[in-house]
Amino acid sequence: MSTFSPGFEGRARGIRERLPPGQYPTESFPVLSAGPTPQVPTATWSFTVTDERGRGRAWSWDEMLALPQEEPTADIHCVTRWSKFDTSWRGVSLDVFLDAFRDSFRDSFRDEGDTAAAFVVAESYDGYTTNLPLADVTGGRAWLAHTFDGFPLSPDHGGPARLVIPHLYFWKSAKWVKGLRLTLEDEPGFWETAGYHEYGDPWREQRYWND
Questions:
Q1: Long-range pairs, 99-106, Cβ under 8 A, ≥24
Q2: How many angstroms separate the CA atoms of 167 and 169, rounded?
Q3: How far apart (Å, rounded) are the C-alpha atoms in residues 87 and 132?
Q4: Is 102's pLDDT higher than 60?
Q5: Within a 10 A sphere around the Cβ of 46, how many other Cβ atoms?
Q6: d(CA 50, CA 95)
Q7: Per-residue pLDDT tens for 123-143?
Q8: Threshold 0.85, pTM exceeds
Q9: Start-to-end Cα distance in the chain
Q10: In the chain, pLDDT over 90 holds for what percent of residues?
């Protein structure tokens, strides 16, 4: 049974409906990282999409900010069992990057074919990686976020920019992300290689490889 803090008692019924099994709600935002927090200046930051043929397109910080911006509000769920409701972000849908990538290589795609990739590997400035089905970062389900709760995203929480993929456990929302690499096969990332689940659905409690 979930445990609710006093501040949540008045909203307990609605929260229970939104709380995945095995999770507890929190109003804080715990900081969890696999290693030291990198400091990435926006002046040198870039985000790159690369496909299985090595074709790539990169965006600078200013170019990213010039793209259409969205402000999703979402519940997030950590594999360590905390959930935070109604988090507010600002950033760019990953659909925008992937569509722009395809537009950049439209002539090439006519000759060589569009990407056949079914998966992506998110890569971060600290060397962290995590794997995802391509379908889970498209269709308005994932963002590159640079703002949290109205303020620039702090380094502790993945700033200057991180992925936000609310329908999966939050380890899939890579901090300090620098790019997406499209792959033909599913390639386990940092935590997946260490025994975490390949997919990570909070509602199915997919925390570890045998869940």
A1: 100/57, 100/67, 101/49, 101/51, 101/56, 101/57, 104/57, 105/51, 105/55, 105/57
A2: 7
A3: 22
A4: yes
A5: 14
A6: 14
A7: 999 999 999 999 999 999 999
A8: yes
A9: 19
A10: 79
**CA contacts within 13 A on the Cβ side of 46:** 9
Whose CA is closest to 80, among 197, 169, 154?
169
Tokens read off for 175: 């901090």
Question: Which residue is it, tokens 């308005």?
Answer: 140
Q: Given this model, what pLDDT does residue 160 score? A: 98
DSSP state of 66: T
Token pair belonging to 94? 């990953």
Domains along the chain?
A: 20-27+41-204 (3.90.420.10)
Q: Among candidates 72, 50, 81, which has minimal Cα distance to 140?
A: 72
Residue 201: per-residue pLDDT: 98
- Evaluate whether 129 touches 76 at the Cβ level (below 8 Å): no
